[in-house]
Structures are given as C-alpha cells and as structure tokens.
Amino acid sequence: MAAHRIVWCAAFLASGAGVIHAQVAKTTAPITVSDLRFRASVLADDSTRGRETGSVGDDMAARYIAAEFARLGLEPAGEGGTFFQTVPMEVRAIDWTATTLRMSAATLRPRRDYLPLPSRGNLPWSPTRELRRTETVFGGTIADSTHWIDSATANGRLVVLRVPTALGSRAGFVLNAGIPGRFAGAAGIALVALDVTPTNYVEFLSQPVMRLAAPGTGATDPADMPSLLLLSNNIAQRMFGAAIDSLAVGQFGTRVGGGMAFKRGPTEAPARNVVAILRGSDAARRETYVSISAHHDHVGVAPRAEDHDSLRAYMHAYERFRQASPTLVVTPAQAASIHVNVDSLRRVRPARRDSIFNGADDDISGTIAMLEIAEQFASMNRPRPKRSILFLAHTGEERGLLGSGWYSTHPTVPIDSIVAEIDMDMVGRGAAPDLEGGGDDYLELIGSRRQSTAFGDLIDTLNAKRARPFRINYAYDAHDHPEGDWCRADHYSYARFGIPAAAFSTSYHGDYHQVTDEAEYLDYPHLASIAGFVGDIAATVANLDQRPVLDKPKPANPFARCVQ
Ligand SMILES: [Zn+2]
Known about the structure:
The chain has three domains: about 300 residues, Aminopeptidase (3-Layer(aba) Sandwich), CATH 3.40.630.10; about 180 residues, Glucose Oxidase, domain 1 (3-Layer(bba) Sandwich); about 55 residues, no CATH class. The protein is globular and about 80 Å long. The protein has 14 helices and 22 strands. Helix 2 packs across helix 10. Helices cover about 25% and strands about 20% of the residues. The strands form four sheets. Strands 1, 2, 14, 15, 18, 19, 20, 21 and 22 form a nine-stranded mixed sheet that branches. An eight-stranded mixed sheet has the order 5-4-12-7-8-9-11-6, covered by helices on one side. A three-stranded antiparallel sheet has the order 10-3-13, with no helix packed on it. The chain is an alpha/beta fold. Bound molecules: zinc ion. The site of zinc ion has 6 residues, from helix 10.
C-alpha cells in the first residue's frame, strides 16, 4: 500500500496547486469497472487526506470533479460561471494555550482531569465565561431535570452534573441540543463523565467544529455562554470532598479559576460544492432538472494511527453483532467477546499503521458513479434527455448536510424546477461478507414514494425490466427505522422542499467511518450496475412529458427538525 502512495504524493506535491491534472483523460465513455477503479484510486487516495470539509484534501477532490465536468463539456452551474459554489464555513477550535482550570491552587490537567467541550449541534459559538474564584455547586443528574438546582442557584457558578453510567460514552454530546434554560446564567457546566468517555471519543470531542459562516447563522448566539467541560470523577470528588453519587443536590464545593477558551477562523481551504448541467434537448423542458448527487467530503485524519488489519477484523465482527441487534446496539459483553487473532493476520502481512479516513465507500463510490453517469450522458451519440440533468457534488455532508443545505437554500437553478433528486451515498459495497442478505444485486432505497408515488413506481418498473433486477430493500425507509437514514443524507435537503427524492445505498459495513474504508474493498461490478441503473432512472424521468406527480403533502416547514 505505502509504495505507490509515495510516488503519487511526490507528483501531487510537485504540482503545488493541489490539482490532479495528469490523471483526468484516462476514462472512457461507457460506465466501466476500470474507470470506477481508476477514479477511486485518485479520489480516495491517502493524498486527499480523508477530505475533511474545508481542507486542502477536499478541495483537491472538488477541483478534480470540476476538471472532469469541464472535460466532459458540461455547463458550469456554480457561481460566477464556474463549477464551484462556495459554502461559507468557519471553524471553532479549542485554544489550548488559553484554556486552564485551577482548583485550590492546583492547575488541573487537560484531557485527564477535564476536557473543554467545543459547541456542537445547536450549541452557540459565543465567547465562554471566565471562571474567577467561581463557586462550584452540585446541580443534580443530567437526565433528571426535575431534581436540578434552580437557576438562581446556578447563576454565576460552575454547575457540576452527575452522568448516569448508561449515558457514559455519549455524555460529550448530551448538551448538543442546547444549553438547558435553567443553566443559561451559569459560569460553567461540568459533566462528570471523563472517566467513562472512551479515548477515541475524547479525541473526537477535542476536534475543531465547523459550521456555516453565513449571515444569520449564530444570530441567536447570546453575548456569552457558560464554559462547557467534562470532568473526571477524581476531580469531582476533590471538589466536593465526597463521591459524586453521595452528593446532595445544591451542595457547594471548592472554588475554581480559569476558563475554556476557543479560537474561530476560516477553513484551511474553501469548502465548495461542484455543480454542472447536462443541458436537455427539449426547448420546453430543458429549464427543468433531474438532479443526481453525491458528497465528496469525508472525515479527515484520525488523531492517532491504528493497525489497519486488526482494526478491520474487530470492526467487522462488531458490525455483525450490530446488524443482528433489533436496536442496532452492541452490548459491552458482545464487544468484549470479540477476539482478533493478530498472529494469523501477521502471517498474511506485517502490521499496517493507518490514520487516514479514505472514505472510499463514503462517499467516493457515489461521487465516481455520478462522474461515470455524467461521462456516459455527455458522450452518448443519441439525443440527450428532454429535461436537463443537474450534477451536484456536495461538500459538508459529514458535518451535517451543510453543502446540500446551502445549495438547496442558495440554488443556482430555481428550486422548484428540480423535478426529482437522486442521491447516492455509500453505493460501493453490499456484498454478502458485509451484511446479512447482501449480494451483487442488493440495493437499499429510501424516500422514493415520500413525495410522489409515481416516482417510486417508475423506479420499480425500470428495475423489473432489468435483465437482472436488483433486490431493493425498503426497510430503511420505515418511519420507525432505528438508523434514521431518511434524515441522514443529502437527499433530505431537497425533499424538505417537496422535491421527490430517492436515496440509494448498499448499506453499512465494518469499515463505515473507519480508516479501513479503502478503495481496494469496493465492489466495482456492483457499483457499475448501480450507476447504470441510476442513469436510466434519471434519463427516464428527464424524458417524461409530465414531471412526477406530487401526491403527498410537502413538509409544512422545510427548516423544522427532520423526522424519520
Ligand atoms: Zn456519506
């Protein structure tokens, strides 16, 4: 693995500008396995460094996609006559130089005694309040608000909250919904959960957070906010002189000083959607669009390297337990029962240290399928579809559908001229080793009938006409499905405006969001057939005289929280 990468990086670094020129011209008109494999080797390569939104690596991917759209002769549909649409983003990171916590003249240790919590989810990005000889008070248990202290007691103090063991590893996310009103005036909120937060979570929680930097974003941010942090049991015990479980709600502890400091700034590179149009052939319909989308961003680089093969063996065993569980949760006992035979792995090859989240399936598989569809359409020697095809390569998906959210609220074509949206997210796996019932005809589909029964029927009819129809699994579309996928991918950014939206996937697997999600594990023949199918659906809808009939109510408020 390492060798070819070194060669590749040298060529890339030499080009300096982060553009992937030399490779562009190597693909052919039809959708082929070798084209898909080649494109994956470019976009999911280590040199794109896991394509974190707003990173140089993700910008390399965006430039490659734009260069491909240009080579194929598609119409630029970004901003200013380009293929790019900038998604304004800003980053907020822990300022370790200015973050301190002192107690009884002792300076506490970050990550071991306490951990600052950057604002995720709906938490504001306001400056945090300083702790100046601030009194600490035991506020109660996080999940039991009926027995919390009142706001008068919380105001100006560091409110320390107990976290039930069951919530343990997720404690760092429990405030994401927002600061509880009662504690809005507190100097800080500390969750006693550092000991039960796994190391990889501590590392994840310490990562910079990103959000849109658009007018209006953060408009509701208060002038300042409580410092948010995780605390270790040991420090809580020293603070109150007793074990956290024995404290009375409202009990005061020692005073503390310091504060959780953050710095804000732009991303290292522009975060950009890449947008192109294959203009339709029918004068009356070419100003309407069928959109095909995928996301080119992923989650970047892990704070520390893992051994690729043993991690993979472990996660695949873990995933089998997860898929077999009706609630998709693996019990600690099941996790503990997984034993990886490292010796047998070593007999195959030496350890491979790996820290890059290549995201080959998530979502380079969808991105390269979209490029192959575009190439097939652009090079076809028959009349183009009547309506136009809008190709959308989103950024920011992993950061909360930020790229598609931005495009659908700042569209470069009228939003109601999009007659149907087809998203492909993780369409490169789905074989039997990955999931129960998997196979090269396995396909998951969500949402196709949520706005338009006709749209869903059209897809099933086309599938039935295939020489080898896909076994389409609609289970993830159920309103009570625990995975919640209806709300978790870019199709939703369009569906919320009443656009018929179908989301294709070949499901989860043991490499999902792991450094092991590599191009070498993609099922290219399966992916090629899915790309062909999506191209057929898009062409069929684009050639309809009437756009798919909407027979289901539009969401009343497109900005309301999504419900599965
Ligand atoms: Zn994805």
